[in-house]
Amino acid sequence: MLHKALYLLLFISNTAFAAQCNLQSVSTVDIKAEKQSVILDEENKVQSILKTPSQRCASVQFTISGSGSRLISTIRDSFTAVLYDGEEITAQSLKMKDNQTDRISFGKRYKHEGFVCFGEQQVPISEIRCEL
């Protein structure tokens, strides 16, 4: 009976008290790549120029319900971008504004601002989600 009570307590604490990420604002930013590849033919004439895809990023404001703190790398892995072609990609980097440590605190009074990037993609971002 004690094992059932402990299991029930663990189940409730993991679901009912789990932190949730709430996006307040999202502004997508495309960072144009300055890199290009030039393909030459046998006579050293330009055959084609290939441009590197833009870096797909977003400026985000978010809160995390609950209380405590987490590593920024854990929060970074919570951001997902959905591209216009339906592909979903996980964030590759997250830089927090005004944060000099590797952890962030969360709770109702903490509103966070950051810049999250999803890598070089041909297709732009249609939606960003944050799911802890």
TrEMBL record:
Residues 1-18 form the signal peptide. This is DUF2541 domain-containing protein. Keywords: Signal. It comes from the Bacteria.
